């Protein structure tokens, strides 16, 4: 986008006529925009997830741009959006297009960990080859611990709790639920689905050695239209709980199939249950307890959270607020100001070790692996009762009930990251 020239208000003709001479008109050039990009799915069966993240990201960017000083010395964010079609190859093409357009920050994460891993790898290699055109990847949704573990990168920051952290919070909840006795694992057949199954069995067994795991099934991601065969298999084992990392359409169709079979089961899910359509699916099924973990309980937060939630609910994309997405923009903005620079290397160095008292509570960006530590709250989708559930979602009178909370400091789990740092870092 070309720079916008703002001319000073001209002297009136009368004033100029009365002067011995008139100086040339003064002008000022707006600071160059800080180019950032959004890369996620905006078409296909899971497009509503990407659209929702985009609505949340725009809220954070609008707030940063609205401040009197903008982001830095009058400069403001300029956002470009790219549809990756839930494909790693399309994501890499979008990443290159964003870099070519001058993006310094890429926000992504809702398309799955394998897609994000490919982007992080590509960005890392690009930055090594092109030190003057570096880019940072800010991941607000993909939660495979490998992204900040064995495959960590200096150029990647995760602003969502990873799978192990989420499972720790859920395991803490399971400790208090004697009705959870038999668990069946049903997950999408990709890296994170397999990891959710593995960590669930490990951490839940440690928290509740008496829990029996009755079976395990993986299914293709985003391709199953009827989950009835999968539900029948799980139900036949006598499972009272489904451990599922499904998200988007895959979770909603699973809930529908169980409801159609009158299978009153509890689901143990990560943040996928906070996506569009899941509350509607539960309200239509009328049975089943969808328990999930996120950084807040939708509809039950402090005044600042509820104000932002109300703004997101007014957007065409829908009504599901993901506070960490806004927090991602805040963290980047704080780092730009701390570094007094828009150089991705300096931004990364400023982000490392950053501590912030945020609208979610105390958060810390670990330097060792670039994993954000933030609180995790376990909640269950339930009917609005005016007390424990005050706000309905998806156009229903169903919302979210808080079950338990785990502070960030209790989620500071070990990491396997051995980060390769660039020269001068």
Notes on the structure:
Pfam families: Peripla_BP_6. This is Branched-chain amino acid ABC transporter substrate-binding protein. Belongs to the leucine-binding protein family. InterPro entries: BCAA_transport, Leu-bd, Peripla_BP_I. The chain has 425 residues and is an alpha/beta fold. The chain folds into 2 domains: 200 residues, Response regulator (Rossmann fold, 3-Layer(aba) Sandwich), CATH 3.40.50.2300; 167 residues, Rossmann fold (3-Layer(aba) Sandwich). Helices cover 35% and strands 20% of the residues. It contains 12 helices and 17 strands. A 7-stranded mixed β-sheet has the order 9-8-10-11-12-16-17. Strands 4-3-5-6-7 form a 5-stranded parallel β-sheet, with helices on both faces. α6 links the parallel β8 and β9. The longest helix has 20 residues.
Annotate the secondary structure layout.
Elements: E1 5-7, H1 13-17, E2 27-29, E3 34-40, H2 47-66, E4 77-83, H3 88-100, E5 105-108, H4 113-129, E6 136-139, E7 156-158, H5 163-174, E8 182-188, H6 191-207, E9 212-219, H7 228-236, E10 241-243, H8 249-260, E11 266-269, H9 278-285, E12 289-294, H10 303-313, H11 323-339, H12 344-351, E13 355-358, E14 361-365, E15 372-373, E16 376-383, E17 398-406
Parallel strand pairs: 3-4, 3-5, 5-6, 6-7, 8-9, 8-10, 10-11, 11-12
Antiparallel strand pairs: 1-2, 12-16, 13-14, 14-15, 16-17
């Amino acid at each position: 986008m070309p720079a916008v020239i703002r001319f000073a208000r001209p002297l009136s003709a009368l004033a100029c006529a009365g002067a011995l001479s008139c100086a040339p008109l003064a002008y000022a050039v707006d600071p160059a925009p800080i180019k950032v990009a959004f890369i996620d799915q905006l078409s296909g069966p899971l497009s509503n997830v990407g659209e929702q993240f985009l609505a949340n990201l725009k809220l954070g960017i609008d707030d940063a741009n609205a401040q009197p000083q903008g982001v830095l010395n009058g400069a403001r964010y300029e956002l470009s959006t790219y549809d990756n079609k839930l494909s790693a190859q399309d994501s890499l093409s979008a990443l290159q297009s964003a870099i070519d357009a001058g993006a310094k920050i890429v926000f992504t994460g809702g398309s799955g960990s394998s897609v994000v891993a490919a982007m992080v790898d590509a960005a890392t290699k690009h930055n090594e080859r092109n030190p003057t055109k570096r880019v940072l990847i800010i991941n607000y949704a993909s939660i495979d611990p490998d992204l900040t573990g064995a495959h960590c990168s200096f150029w990647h920051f995760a602003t969502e709790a990873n799978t192990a952290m989420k499972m720790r919070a859920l395991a803490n909840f399971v400790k208090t639920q004697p009705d959870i006795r038999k668990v069946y694992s049903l997950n999408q057949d990709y890296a994170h689905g397999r990891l959710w199954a593995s960590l669930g069995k490990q951490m839940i067994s440690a928290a509740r050695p008496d829990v029996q795991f009755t079976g395990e099934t993986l299914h293709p991601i985003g391709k199953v239209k009827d989950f009835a065969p999968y539900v029948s298999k799980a139900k036949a084992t006598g499972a009272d709980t489904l451990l599922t990392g499904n998200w988007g359409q895959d979770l909603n169709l699973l809930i529908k199939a169980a409801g159609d079979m009158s299978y009153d089961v509890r689901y143990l899910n990560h943040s996928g249950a906070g996506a569009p359509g899941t509350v509607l699916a539960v309200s239509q099924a009328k049975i089943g307890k969808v328990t999930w973990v996120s950084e807040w309980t939708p509809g039950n937060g402090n005044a600042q959270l509820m104000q932002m939630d109300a703004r997101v609910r007014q957007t065409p994309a829908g009504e599901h607020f993901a506070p960490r997405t806004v927090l991602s923009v805040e963290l980047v903005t704080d780092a730009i100001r701390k570094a007094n620079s828009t150089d991705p290397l300096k931004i990364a160095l400023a982000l490392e070790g950053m501590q912030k008292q945020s609208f979610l509570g105390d958060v810390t960006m670990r330097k060792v692996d670039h994993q954000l530590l933030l609180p995790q709250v376990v909640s269950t989708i339930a009917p609005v009762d005016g007390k424990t559930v005050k706000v309905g979602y998806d156009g229903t009178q169903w919302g979210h009930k808080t079950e338990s909370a785990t502070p960030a400091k209790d989620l500071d789990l070990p990491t396997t990251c051995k980060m390769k740092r660039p020269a001068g870092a």
